Amino acid sequence: MEFLCPSCQMQLKSEPDQAGQLVRCPGCNSRLQIPADPANMPSSSLMKRGAANSTTGRYGWKETDPTNPDMFVSLGIGVALLAFWFLILLPFNPAAGKSNSAYTTMEFVASLFFKHFLVSVLNTLFFCWSIAILFLKFQKLRHQKAALLLDVLPLRIGKEINAGNVAQFIDHVYKLPRKLRDSLMVNRIRKALELFEIRQSASDVREMMASQSDIDSARIGGSYTLTRAFLWAIPLLGFIGTVIGLSQAIGGMNFANIEDVGKIVSSINNVTSGLGTAFDATLLGLVLAMTLNFPLNSLSKQEDDNLNAIDAFCNEVLLPRLNDGVGAGNGDAAAIADTVVKQLANAHQDLLADLNALSSRMVDYATSLDEKMAAFQNTVTEEFVTKTAAMRDESDKAVKESMEKVSTYLGGLDSGIKSLNEVLGTLGGKQIVIETKRKWPWS
């Protein structure tokens, strides 16, 4: 059923048996009530299938889990079985000082459960819970087997299923008893007929039923997860109880007075009796695990056989009667051609998806390369500016030092010229006569 949220006007959808329930809108989180009157729903939500169905209108039914029982119901049954079992064993619980060799059969059984009480209670609870789950699953399996007896595709409507009478077959399925129509086989037949009514393709129905078979098989296999976990935990808890018993027995050894032989013998007797008690926990765990293993695997095989029977019915009864309008002589060729076309279309879609992924990757690489080149250019520019500024500073410093030296030299030259001018000024117009004394050869 389809309806609108009165607060945010979001299009919502629910199962028909949920009509009248209070739910929260996933869009605005406001509380609303699912409408119970189909007349208030859009006409597109009515499951009308041609003239044969225009007056009845089909809204389907909610599919219940065909193999997983309710967790709390199974737990309640398991706790009740646990309490009942311990109440039966309570009168047979042997006295504390009674020897093991004097136990009766029921006293021996009771001692296995009461010696390591906590471990035994947990093991028995897991065992009883598993038995409750298997019992409820067996009831569901009986329901599934009973549905196999239904005449889902009656010959009175037609020997073959085609576009003209498929709506009548669907109407017949909807008229089956509500208790039996909610089963793996009836649900699968209903889905196959509804798909055939829409697509008019036997190959599409074949693929859908193969996929539905895998889904049902996975659901059945997953329904044993908790029971197999209990099957693994029961012997492990038994080993834990044995380890606890061993540690207590060894801890009770007392050889403080070695000379007293009687005390030593008594201590050894206590240890050996404690060891026997410790291994009882492992014995109980192994017995419970072995007892649980047989009905678990037996029920699993029965569910697999039931699923195989449903697959065989679909392949041997439903599919041969589907007539999608293809001629008898060209049916196989058309089916092969249709399959080849679909495979090529799927391969083409995969190729396009790979090309899109490759293109996206190349764009990412190009973007990354541009970013790296821009970062490299920025680095080179910064280094060039830094080096140029350093060279300019060094050149300015060298020129400044050279100018200072030239200024120093020019200052000294200026002082020399001034001194020379002063000397020349002092001399004024005086002349300096330098006489050269001639020497004669004979003097």
Strand content: under 5%
Give a short account of the largest sheet: 2 strands, antiparallel
Low-confidence stretches: 38-57
Domain tally: 3
What spatial form do the alpha-carbon principal axes imply? flat
Molecular structure report:
β3 and β4 form a beta hairpin. The protein has three domains: 2-46, no CATH class; 71-325; 354-443. It has helices at 71-89, 105-114, 117-147, 166-174, 178-181, 184-199, 202-222, 225-251, 261-321, 331-427, and strands at 2-4, 11-13, 22-24, 31-33. The chain contains ten helices and four strands; from the N terminus they run ββββαααααααααα. It starts with a strand and ends in a 16-residue tail after the last helix. α3 (117-147) packs antiparallel against α8 and α8 packs antiparallel against α9 (261-321). The protein is 67% helix and 3% strand. A two-stranded antiparallel ribbon has the order 1-2. A two-stranded antiparallel sheet has the order 3-4. By secondary structure, the chain is mostly helical.
